[in-house]
Structures are given as C-alpha cells and as structure tokens.
C-alpha cells in the first residue's frame, strides 16, 4: 500500500477528538491486523501526534503517566514535548549563534518520539513562554512533511483552532475527521473547519463530519438539522457511557470491549480510511 496516510482529527474542544483519535488508532491497527492475516501482510506503523497544547492523547493511549501533569509515581519516565525541545534549542542558539536550529531539530526529534509496541507518539506540548505558538506549528508542519513518510498512518489529534494545518503543508492531509456533537457551537466550528480544509486542499470526499456522543433516537434528527446548515454527516458515533467511565478512571482505549457502541462506530470510520 501507499505509505504515509495522514489523518487529522479536528473539531471544537470537548466534542471527543482525543477519544476518537485514540480509538481510531486502535481500530486501524485491528483492521489492518485482520486484513494482514488474510494477506500475510507486514506490520503496520502508526504515528500518533498530540497537537493539542492541552495534551491528553497520551492518557487515552495509556501513556499519561509520562507528562508533567501526570499523577503517576513513575517519575523516571517523562514524555518530552516538541515545545520544550524548541525552547532548549533556542537557548542553545543564544549561546552559540552558529547553531543551525533546523538541522539540530531534525536530529533531536527522534529522541522525543515515544516508541511503543503498537504505535509511536509525538507530543507537541504547550506554548512555552509568552508570545506566539506559531513556531511550534511551523515545526509540526515540517514534521508532517517528512516524518510521516516513515509511517503507514499518522493520526493527528488537533488543537481546536487548527492553526497548525491552516497553512498548506506540501504533503497535505489525506483525511480529516471533523468531530461535532449536539451543540450548535460545534456545528459552527465544523463549518469553519470545512473552509480551512478547502484552503489546505483536502478533497471533499476525504472530509468526514463525525457526529459524536449522540443519544439513541436522535441520529436522524441530528443529521437533518446539521444538513440544513450545510453539513453532511458521514458517521454517527453514539453516546457511550463506557467512554466517559474510562476517561474518568484514566483507563486507556485498548481495554474497551469491541462491542462498545462507540468502538463499533469508530471501526466503521477506520474501515473507510485504511
Ligand atoms: N462517544 C462518546 N460517548 C460518551 N462520552 C464521550 C464520547 N466521546 C467522548 N466522550 C467524552 O467527552 C469528553 C470530551 O472528550 P475528548 O475526547 O477529551 O474531547 P476533545 O479532545 O475534543 O476535547 C470526555 O469526557 C470523553 O470521555
Ligand atoms: Mg483533546
């Protein structure tokens, strides 16, 4: 297969981007493993990118103890973020003006990627110090352009604003999931994201509006209402109390049962994107 599909998961904060990103990684792996068994295929590599400054994808993937905000007693292991790395390189640059930050950066990125059995993880981190977050976003675009070539899939849990994707990357994004819930605000954000997606050059067919946390019985009503506002819903993920319970307890998505309603919904999305 063609290597290096990039899947961005975007949408208003709280709609379920992180939950769906983590589940999507799980379901892509499952999907490919099942197909691989049939085809005798090779291992699939996935890169998970947490691009939300309020990083919580590591938690959903079972690595939450590694962040500075983590509560675990495992203090030896900490995930270092792209933001921190940039900060320390800029400090070095002040001491040594000849330092080529960009090439140093490319070498160092490998050091901060967390390598797990089933996936690799890169955390962008919070903006460091006062001022603009843009340089980190610039770095993310650079990563999307190069690093992703080493993986079969890159799943990006985006920040709400989508700033990091709003300028075209040379590679583009292969699919964008725009997550919305039953709130009007999330629909407005989805409409805005569609415009950005057009700017980035995502084919309309690869932009999937995903309605998440939808209570049983309101699926059709939700679709109609959103359609009136100009959006086509590609997939409906039901409200699933297990997702909230796992989130509350800090349990990773790996342990969720296959037949949990939200898992089955994400499975359908995975089948569309692999
Ligand atoms: N399908 C779902 N059913 C029930 N709760 C969900 C579902 N998807 C997400 N949630 C819950 O919604 C909240 C926000 O989800 P999260 O993934 O953190 O959103 P975001 O990353 O977009 O801010 C969390 O408490 C999460 O457990
Ligand atoms: Mg999130």
From the spread of the alpha carbons, the general shape counts as globular
Distance between the termini: 10 Å
Main sheet attributes: strand count, strand direction, barrel closure:
8 strands, mixed
CATH superfamily: P-loop containing nucleotide triphosphate hydrolases
What is the annotated CATH architecture?
Answer: 3-Layer(aba) Sandwich
Structural class: alpha/beta
For the record, what CATH class applies? Alpha Beta
Strand order of the largest sheet: 3-4-2-5-1-6-7-8
Q: Please indicate the percent range of residues in DSSP E strands (runs of 2 or more).
A: 15-25%
Say what the CATH topology is: Rossmann fold
Helicity range? 40-55%
Number of discrete domains = 1
Uncertain runs with pLDDT below 50, 5 residues or more?
69-75
Series of H and E elements: EHEHHHEEHEEHEHEHH
The tally of strands reads: 8
Rounded mean pLDDT is 85
Task: Please tally the helical runs, counting DSSP H or I stretches of 4 or more residues.
Answer: 9
The gyration radius over C-alpha positions equals 19 Å
Q: What ligands can be seen in this structure?
A: adenosine-5'-diphosphate, magnesium ion
